[in-house]
Amino acid sequence: MDKNTKDLVDKGIMLPLMEEFYTIQGEGAHTGTAAYFIRVGGCDVGCHWCDVKESWNAELHPPTLADTIVDNVKKYAETVVITGGEPLMWSMDYITDLLQKNNIRTHIETSGAYSFSGKWNWFCLSPKKTKMPLAECYPEADELKMIIHNTSDFAFAEQEAAKVGAKCQLYLQPEWSKKEKMTALIVDYVMKNPKWKISLQTHKYLNIP
C-alpha cells in the first residue's frame, strides 16, 4: 500500500472492502428488514467460531473509496449495516457522515474493541471474551447481542448487560455450530429471564447472504 492510499485509509476516506451486498438482515432487532451490507476487512478479535475468518486479514481486501461504496448503496437501500471483520478498526466518521447526508440510516455490528467513531442510527454491540469492548462503547449500544457457544456464556452475557444503558435491547444468539443444543438452553433462559430476547441467524435458514 503506497503512502497516499495509507493516508486515505487512516482517515476513513478509503476502507478495506471485503464485500458489499443487498439482502435481508438476519439477526437481532432488525431481523427481516432489507439492508445493504458493507463488510470491512480486518479483525484481531479472534473468535474461533467466526464464520467469516477470510475477513481477518485487511491486506487481502482492496482499499476502496467510501464515496464509491456510498454510490453503490444509493442504488439499493435506505439502511446500511457496516460489519466485518471489526469495522471500528477504521475511522467510520467519513463514510457515516456521507451516508447520513444521503438520508441513509447507518447501523453497525461491532465487538466494541476499538475506539468509537461514526454517526449511527443503530449501534449493535457484540462483546467477545478474547478482546473486550472499550468502556466508551457500552453507553452507545442500542442492542447488545451475546453469542452463546457454551453454558458459561450466559454469565458473560449478564456481566455485559450490566454495563449498557437502559435503552439497550438485549439478545442471546446461539452460535451456529451448536444451534440445536444452545437454542434449547436459550429458550429456557429467556423464559426465566424475560429482559432478554432471542436472536437467530435467520439468513442461514433462508439461505441468503
UniProtKB/TrEMBL annotation:
Its EC number(s): 4.3.99.3
Annotated CDD domains: Radical_SAM (cd01335)
Cofactors demanded by this protein:
[4Fe-4S] cluster; Mg(2+); S-adenosyl-L-methionine
Where does the Radical SAM core domain start and stop, copy by copy?
40-112
Query: What start and end residues bound the annotated signal peptide?
Result: none
| Pathway in which this enzyme or protein is active | Purine metabolism; 7-cyano-7-deazaguanine biosynthesis
Keyword Metal-binding included in the entry's annotation? yes
Q: How is the cofactor bound?
A: Binds 1 [4Fe-4S] cluster. The cluster is coordinated with 3 cysteines and an exchangeable S-adenosyl-L-methionine. Binds 1 S-adenosyl-L-methionine per subunit.
Listed GO molecular functions?
4 iron, 4 sulfur cluster binding; carbon-nitrogen lyase activity; magnesium ion binding; S-adenosyl-L-methionine binding
Gene3D superfamilies referenced in this protein's UniProt entry, alphabetically: Aldolase class I
Q: A single GO BP annotation from the record?
A: tRNA queuosine(34) biosynthetic process
Residues annotated as binding [4Fe-4S] cluster are 43, 47, 50
Task: List UniProt keywords, sorted A-Z.
Answer: 4Fe-4S, Iron, Iron-sulfur, Lyase, Magnesium, Metal-binding, Queuosine biosynthesis, S-adenosyl-L-methionine
Family stated for the protein in its record? Belongs to the radical SAM superfamily. 7-carboxy-7-deazaguanine synthase family.
Description of how the protein assembles with itself and partners: Homodimer.
Q: Which HAMAP family match?
A: QueE
- The protein here is known as 7-carboxy-7-deazaguanine synthase
